From TrEMBL:
Origin organism lineage: Bacteria, Bacillati, Actinomycetota, Actinomycetes, Mycobacteriales
UniProt cross-references to InterPro entries, sorted A to Z: Ribosomal_uS2 (IPR001865), Ribosomal_uS2_bac/mit/plastid (IPR005706), Ribosomal_uS2_CS (IPR018130), Ribosomal_uS2_flav_dom_sf (IPR023591)
Positions with biased composition (Low complexity): 234-245
PANTHER family: 30S RIBOSOMAL PROTEIN S2 PROKARYOTIC AND ORGANELLAR, SMALL RIBOSOMAL SUBUNIT PROTEIN US2M
Ribonucleoprotein is among the record's keywords: yes
Family, similarity comment: Belongs to the universal ribosomal protein uS2 family.
GO BP of this protein: translation
Keywords tagged on the record: Ribonucleoprotein, Ribosomal protein
Name listed for the protein in its UniProt record: Small ribosomal subunit protein uS2
Keyword Lipid biosynthesis: no
Superkingdom of this protein's organism: Bacteria
Recorded GO MF terms: structural constituent of ribosome
Record-level GO cellular component terms: cytosolic small ribosomal subunit
Amino acid sequence: MAVVTMRELLDAGVHFGHQTRRWNPKMRRFIFTDRNGIYIIDLQQTLGYIDEAFEFVKETVAHGGNILFVGTKKQAQEAVQTEAERVGMPYVNHRWLGGMLTNFQTVSKRLARMKELRAMDAAEDGYAGRGKKEILMLTRERQKLERVLTGIADMTKVPSALWIVDTNKEHIAVAEAHKLNIPVVAILDTNCDPDDVNFPIPGNDDAIRSVNLLTHIIGEAVVAGKQAREERQLAAQREAAGDAPAEAEKKEEAQAEAAEQSAE
């Protein structure tokens, strides 16, 4: 069964690129034609690249990896949060904090501070002995940290790969991923640089319907990966359980044989 159909891509406007005066010449090979000053992306190629990206994400998750969803532009914020939360993956949808990957140790300290402030706010006597001004400052600090870090609150290590909406806007995230050799899966609009992406999906990164569809596809790849991981674990458990009786039987046979030899 196909991951997505050509009709679904067309209905979501995935084929619409940027104006012809706003483009990256490196994207030439992904462009089908131009119409009324707008580049039209070759969706036949897009279908193939979607399959490759889907398989990569699926296998990454199947082997225990995690995918960080990134999209801070207005058109991407809701889709990134919704899909990441649906499939239990971390996300960044407001502001990319410099060093989020390359200086994860410092980011981890901020995460710990956010959790500390959350616990303080939730406790009945969390603010005991503090003045109104101090409580206000602590509340603001917590809210500021939550706005940036909520999506990665449970992330204990750098991700296995990134899903990015708009590599131009998220250029810092892309650069950090490259520095750490973390694969990047991303939508490639006609103004993007394909050299920045390991698993590109040529498409519209501005239209909400396009962003929603492509991000949902990546979410489905995560779901498929988790299912594959569970199936492999169950198979391993069954194999181990099946080997146990056989080993016990061999041991009993060996003991019986040894007893016979002793009797002789």
